[in-house]
Write a structure and sequence with these properties.
The structure is a homodimer.
Chain A (H helix, E strand, L loop, with lengths): L2 H7 L8 E6 L14 H4 L3 H7 L3 E6 L6 E2 L1 H8 L11 H8 L9 E10 L5 E3 L7 H14 L6 E8 L2 E7 L30 H18 L7 E8 L7 H5 L3 E4 L3 H9 L11 H11 L5 E6 L1 H8 L2 H20 L4 E5 L16 E7 L12 H5 L4 E5 L3 H8 L9
Parallel strand pairs in A: 1-10, 1-11, 2-13, 9-10
Antiparallel strand pairs in A: 2-12, 4-5, 4-7, 4-8, 6-7, 11-12
Helix pairs in contact in A: 4-9, 5-9, 10-12, 11-12
């Protein structure tokens, strides 16, 4: 959807409220032929009752057949086509560890790796060292690397993965990765792809030189590789495009981070679903748009734990009356992508979606599930990034186009 | 769908197999109000049973309301948006008669026509001369036309229609058609639209001059008109874009030709549906992707022969167990377009589509037909060129997008 079109039609003098409730990895599959999906199996009387007054459908975040990562999937729900609004892995890494990335910072996703006596890579993941070792090595590099004129930050992510951030003036990040993605060769030099990125590329090369010296007696993690060297994107902000004072309510840094990336406020983490709804109630009068993120549906999907994924959905269902008591103008209940327990991973399957609004044309289907959503008025395989304009309309926030 | 996106996500180290079974002109209409379509009327227990384990939908090859020709319709099924990947009629003519077109050849679709004593066109189709006359005239021109530095090939197509190919160095085909598409005027001169095409335009004008001299005593076919002057397109190849070693199994040159156009292998024709399946079995271990083309559903549609079109579908159904015995990862059963017997011609109606895959979220609809497909999870009126990315996903051949 064209942002300029939306902005040109915005109505601002309204107090209507939009809630986007995302159960991460919501979409599923039956575990055996003829069975129910996780969402279909869940006892969720509140959602089923709401479905009868709502529109249903199945969205896909990116394109048909494409399995979304969490970052792009949320961008889509926020109205940003993730193919057009690409965000570097370095930036996503920073969001994931709650690093407060600044406009001119250059971020990269790093791997500790193993090289032999000739400097040739023998293991791109350094034997998948434990997280504690990764933490110690990041600390070592934080303590010892010194590059005049810039600050260098290392943050452990998990096991062999870390975040590198370079902070200084006049940095650009159009720089080749140093990870050759193969064994038996040396890491590549960080090479600038355009002249503006020469300065940052030189700094990264110097960082790598010092790091190799500092790590040389470590085993197996005696070297590092950098990928997805990137800066914060300069995108139109969500509050500006959609005319909504907006806030993210989430337990995990990654989701607050993606929301922050598009300009939403992002208060400190809640520690439970109940606390998330507490926060929603507390902030109700201060914002127009509320993104509420539920993580564990995805985690249990990744574990292949069908019963627990079902149970998480039921827990959210039990909290739904508190959300409805706030009387939202529009409530969207969906996932960012599917994470079927049967596959134990993110998948490309379209995601069940419910949109409740006072002005909606209800499908009259008293059930929220994959098969029910197939029959709904939102359609099957519609782009996730079309939800926001539709929500704006139902919130009475868009003028007529033309006379 | 963006080819670059797909290519960036390809997983290559998998042995999964994709079969695209195209029953040409599959989509139909009831012959009278309240009746069944051809596909609905067919007794096809194997397809109906497979439907219950599959996803259904109705695709359209080009755009809503647009009736596809066979070439563009197949390009769409191969994942190429036919509006973006336009192929000249001259090239399609060459494919249709199994002419081995080379990269620098210039091909045109020709009509024999009738002109009066002043050279003004009186019949653009020369009274629809019989095919044998067209064959004799092509032979005459092949024997007599001589243009220094280039080879000229004429091939009969059907009745008044023929193929012209000019072979030489440095030819480009951005050239105006000579057919004015009206009566009472002279044929237009072949005029280059850009400087690179001057050479070929000059050769075509010389060809037309010699042809008019050679044909002057013929009646009624004493002149010719050229349309769709074109060269082989320089497109990303199907095996490269989708990472699939690919083969076309078809009885007619046109369909092997379109497959060859996008870089599929194209072994000699099979002579029956049984031989097509024999070939499929024989090639099973050598390829990743198999396009199997069934022609006669379309032919009987064009004839308006409802009973025979139904019977062809039933013959294909009887062969389905042999395909399923190969255990394809993904099987798509669809048509390239609709050819309703009630209309006796190609039509714009969306085409019934079944996608079976082990990872699919089955619709649970135990019937394959136009009405059943309307309820399916693939959706109604979805672009035919989205089938390939979805098939890749279900074949485990696409990585996650972003983190």
């Amino acid at each position: 959807m064209e942002f300029d079109l939306i902005k040109s039609l915005l109505i601002r003098n309204t107090k209507s409220k939009i809630v986007l409730l995302v159960m991460d990895g919501l979409g599923g599959l039956p575990m055996e032929a003829g069975g129910l999906t996780e969402l279909e199996a869940a006892e969720k009387p509140n959602m089923d009752a709401l479905a009868g007054k709502s529109m249903l459908g199945l969205h896909q975040a990116i394109r048909t057949g494409i399995t979304p990562g969490s970052g792009p999937a949320h961008l889509s729900l926020f109205g940003y086509d993730p193919v057009k609004f690409a965000v570097g892995r370095g930036v996503l890494s920073a969001l994931g560890v709650d690093f407060d990335l600044q406009k001119s910072d250059v971020a990269a996703r790093g791997n500790f790796c193993t090289v032999d006596a000739d400097g040739l890579i023998t293991d791109r993941r350094a034997g998948r060292i434990p997280t504690e070792v990764g933490e110690r090595l990041c600390q070592l590099l934080n303590d010892k690397v010194r590059i005049p004129g810039v600050e260098v930050f290392l943050r452990p992510v998990k096991e062999y993965r870390f975040l590198l951030v370079i902070r200084g003036e006049g940095l650009s990040a159009n720089i080749e990765e140093t990870d050759p993605q193969t064994l038996g060769v040396k890491p590549l030099p960080a090479t600038a792809i355009d002249p503006n990125s020469e300065k940052a590329a030189g700094i990264i090369r110097e960082f790598v030189r010092q790091a190799q010296e500092i790590l040389k007696n470590e085993s197996p993690a005696n070297m590092l590789l950098l990928r997805g060297i990137a800066q914060l994107p300069d995108w139109p902000s969500f509050p500006e495009v959609f005319g909504l004072k907006s806030v993210a309510i989430a337990m995990y840094p990654m989701y607050r981070g993606v929301a922050k990336l598009v300009g939403m406020d992002s208060p400190p983490a809640a520690n439970s679903y109940e606390e998330e709804i507490d926060l929603l109630e507390k902030l109700w009068n201060d914002y127009d748009f509320f993104f509420v993120h539920i993580k564990k549906t995805d985690s249990y999907g990744e574990d292949g734990n069908f019963a627990n994924k079902v149970h998480e959905i039921e827990k959210v269902d039990a909290l739904l009356p508190r959300i409805m008591a706030l009387d939202p103008s529009v409530l969207i209940i969906t996932g960012d992508h599917s994470t079927p327990c049967a596959m134990k991973t993110h998948s490309w399957h379209p995601v069940p979606t419910l949109m409740y609004a006072k002005t909606c044309r209800p499908d009259g289907i008293n059930s929220f599930g994959e098969r029910a959503c197939r029959q709904g008025g939102l359609g099957v395989r519609f782009p996730g990034f079309e939800l926001m304009p539709l929500a704006l309309a139902h919130a009475g926030r868009l003028e007529k186009f033309g006379a």
